[in-house]
Inverse folding.
């Protein structure tokens, strides 16, 4: 889809709400190997089925 500029925050919100509704957490696409300096962060590498009660989402936009 590429970068959607101003629409990216809305698309992220829609995807997050759909994951909440379906109870599925989708993995980060193409994440096969986590760098050593990022090992302390929980990365979703396979789809998980869980009840999702809340989300936190940041949308910092594209600075030009």
């Amino acid at each position: 889809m590429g970068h959607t500029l101003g629409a990216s925050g809305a698309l992220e919100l829609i995807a997050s709400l759909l994951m909440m509704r379906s109870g599925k957490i989708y993995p980060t696409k193409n994440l096969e190997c986590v760098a050593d300096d990022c090992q302390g962060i929980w990365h979703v590498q396979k789809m998980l089925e869980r009840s999702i009660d809340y989300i936190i989402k940041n949308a910092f936009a594209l600075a030009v």
The radius of gyration is 14 Å. The longest helix spans residues 8-22. Helices lie at 8-22.
